[in-house]
Design goal:
about 425 residues, alpha+beta, Helix Hairpins, BirA Bifunctional Protein, domain 2, 2 domains, 8-stranded mixed beta sheet, 3-stranded antiparallel beta sheet, about 40% helix, elongated, RNA-binding
RNA sequence: GGUGAGGUGGGUGAGUGGCUGAAACCACCGGUUUGCUAAACCGGCGUACUCUGAAAGGGGUACCGCGGGUUCGAAUCCCGCCCUCACCGCCA
């Protein structure tokens, strides 16, 4: 959520920045609606506070009267207070309603794009922030896409996944399973040496948690739910990890907080069929190591750079061709101020696959989370939150398999040898 | 799942209807003292909203797990929920 005070004090800049997202004009009008609703809220607040003050004062007086034995005067006051209370009850209800309306409106206003976000409405307008300049892997004419390699080398089985669960739930086996485990460990080790604290969070979260990071109410349909217990399967480790600091006030000296965690991720992802969802390109369950930072507002863009560096380093070590995109206004996530996507080139499909998304949410998340830090002048202030995938496994695996295939084996990048226990996959 | 006890500020913990936004102690911050450190002493020390003020500040309201209720008045009484601990049951 955006802060109302910001909408109030910097209205024109915000509306202008929001235009980059290609919002329909009625969305832009929400800004003014929120502010005027909030004006109403303020005046109700003032009036209500005054009434309650009257009640409090009178109640004290009644106590005194009783002590002094002035029953009549006390009863008089009692009647007066009862009247005042009726009015204050009304006001309270009005207040509650107005507050809910404001909250609802705020939920519909996306984050303000960073000034560097390019205008544009669809993925073609994303800016190539860093392109791949070296040659792509040269494959044989009869090179196979990863889902065929999987069959040939017995690495994962989508049909078995269907048998056990349903489509989009891959079952990895043999070298395929070991490669998953190797990548997870590799990514975690890299995060730890970059100073992240390793977190192994719960995979199911309650409603409060899902709400605080914005999965509810907007993306309710994207999550699997355990209805009997009112719990949600996490779509990303971002949800439990960011919620660790929900409602906290952190000492400034402790910033930045660096946390990283491996979890499976569950996504319902209704819709969309065809080539884009073949093999491991898009699945309902996949593994991911997520990195999260809680940063000082003055330094959050340095933090973002640092995280980009971390993800680049991982891909360099895996020897995968990749490019970095700066998302345009139209493609930018609802809650993000600036997002960079990492795409890996999967040579047999001749396709760029998104393997990481690194974002700075500025105070948009922390405002909802009530996540603050104590600044030098002792005043609590909203912190900035950032996160990124480092990395999502399924598509990395797709690219590794496709790019490194030889006639009767698939070579593993050197950095993984100690993790996999093998340097190539053979039949 | 059953029974019992309990959830108070950063921590320990007092508080069973008005004088309690909350004692005391610890931690923390500022000061005095001191060659330095420590001790001692003095002072400060929650959050949100709101009004007022140029600001410093001052006033008000709410918050003692969460939500409702009783009452002129609730941390304190009543109801529902959540959670923690102990014992029993079950269990990787």
């Amino acid at each position: 959520m955006l802060e109302i005070n910001l909408l109030r004090s910097d209205r024109n800049r915000i509306v202008k920045a929001l235009q980059k997202r290609n919002l329909p004009t009625e969305k832009l009008e929400l800004v003014d609606q929120v502010v005027s609703k909030d004006d109403l809220r303020k005046s109700l607040q003032t009036e209500l506070d005054q009434l309650l003050n009257q009640v409090n004062e009178a109640s004290k007086e009644i106590g005194r009267m009783f002590k002094e034995g002035k029953q009549d005067r006390a009863n008089e006051l009692r009647n007066m207070v009862n009247e005042t209370k009726q009015r204050s009850k009304q006001l309270e209800e009005e207040m509650k309603a107005v507050k809910e309306e404001i909250a609802q409106l705020l939920l519909d206003i996306p984050n303000i794009p960073h000034e560097s976000v390019p205008p544009g409405s669809n993925p073609e307008d994303n800016e190539i922030y860093k392109d791949w300049t070296k040659p792509f892997p040269q494959l044989d004419e009869n090179a196979l896409p990863h889902w065929e390699l999987a069959e040939k080398f017995n690495l994962f089985d989508l049909k078995l996944g269907v048998k056990l669960t349903g489509s989009g739930f891959p079952l990895y086996r043999g070298h395929g399973a070991r490669l998953q485990r190797a990548l997870i460990n590799f990514f975690l080790d890299q995060a730890i040496s970059a100073g992240y604290e390793e977190i192994l969070p719960p995979l199911l979260v309650n409603e409060d948690t899902a709400r605080a990071t914005g999965q509810l109410p907007d993306k309710e349909g994207q999550m699997y739910m355990a209805e009997r217990d009112n719990l949600y399967l996490i779509p990303t480790a971002e949800v439990p990890i960011t919620n660790i600091v929900r409602g906290e006030i952190i000492e400034e000296a402790a910033l930045p907080l660096r946390m990283a965690g491996y979890t499976p991720c569950f996504r319902r992802e209704a819709g969309s069929y065809g080539a884009d969802v073949k093999g491991l390109n898009r699945v309902h369950q996949f593994d991911k190591v997520e990195i999260v930072q809680i940063s000082h507002p003055d330094r959050s863009y340095e933090t973002l750079e640092e995280m980009l560096g971390h993800v680049s380093m991982l891909l360099d070590k895996l020897e995968l061709p990749y490019r970095i995109l700066r998302l345009c206004g139209g493609d930018l996530g609802f809650t993000s101020a600036l997002t960079f996507d990492f795409e890996v080139y999967s040579a047999a499909q001749s396709k760029w696959l998104e393997v990481s998304s690194v974002s700075n949410f500025e105070t948009y998340q922390s405002n909802r989370l009530m996540l603050r830090f104590r600044s030098q002048d002792r005043k609590p202030q909203l912190a900035h939150t950032l996160n990124g995938s480092a990395l999502a496994l399924a598509r990395v695996v797709a690219a590794l398999l496709e790019n490194n295939q030889k006639e009767d084996e698939i070579l593993m990048p050197e950095v993984l040898h100690n993790y996999t226990g093998f340097s190539s996959i053979r039949i």
